[in-house]
């Protein structure tokens, strides 16, 4: 490209000249072939194709199955339930199979009381409504899945209707209104998960501390004088504090893995193309993915089984192998 190096006033003059019909078209755009005759007939291949046979003993999850059916398959892959090892989703599920409406009051109290800046959007009335519906399903013996009644938080850059998606900012929701759940959130909702609200995050995800000047900085539950890490700071803190059994964050350069490590929980950066990104601020990116955070590996496995499934465009361009 033959163009001058410019900054300050010179750059402003260059930008003005670049937009002029004659000078810009003849001497700059045409000469440098900027955006002329650009044709991209198909999406790029992000992953090379190679033969791969499933390992013996693996269970293949079909992304066309219903989320609840995939959760059941994943549940059958876990070792026998032992309530004395550590707290997992199975511990919570067995402990209150018919009492989400009782547990929700403790969750609301925990979220409203400590000044830890965990949630940026939260509605106690809606939370009680979800818990009541879950309790009724248990009383009727018709839970939607093993995740029914499990409390899950959603990062503030993922749509969770009717909460606004602000991305940790004070303005983004005004230019991008939330009209529906993100695909990953709708799959969790179809499994009966109780969506607690929108978790705090580093503003626009552009940082690794979780320090947010707009909503307050999320504190690390293990030491309130320390950072959680970011950008999925609220998600990791909610799981680490035991308020939520899982959370959904986003990760490009460590936004799930960093806070998970600092808070002592498990964060998985899913493979690109494995999850549908529709309904996320970063849905058009080529690095960012939606990813689960939970207390243990087996909990991440259950939540991931519910939310997985690539978008139609990724199925064409990536040809992903079966979920194992």
Automatic annotation (TrEMBL):
| Gene3D superfamilies with a match to the protein in the record | Amidase signature (AS) domain
Provide the leader sequence positions: 1-17
Query: Can you name this protein?
Result: Fatty acid amide hydrolase
Which PROSITE patterns does the UniProt entry name for this protein?
Answer: AMIDASES
Molecular function terms from GO: N-(long-chain-acyl)ethanolamine deacylase activity
Q: Name one GO cellular component term.
A: membrane
For this chain's UniProt record, which GO biological process terms are given? N-acylethanolamine metabolic process
Recite the UniProt keywords alphabetically: Hydrolase, Signal
Q: Name one Pfam family in it.
A: Amidase
What organism, scientifically named, is this protein from?
Ceratophyllum demersum (Rigid hornwort)
* Entry similarity comment: Belongs to the amidase family.
The chain positions of domain Amidase read 117-319
Q: What is the lineage of its organism?
A: Eukaryota, Viridiplantae, Streptophyta, Embryophyta, Tracheophyta
State the InterPro entries in the record: Amidase (IPR000120), Amidase_CS (IPR020556), Amidase_dom (IPR023631), AS_sf (IPR036928)
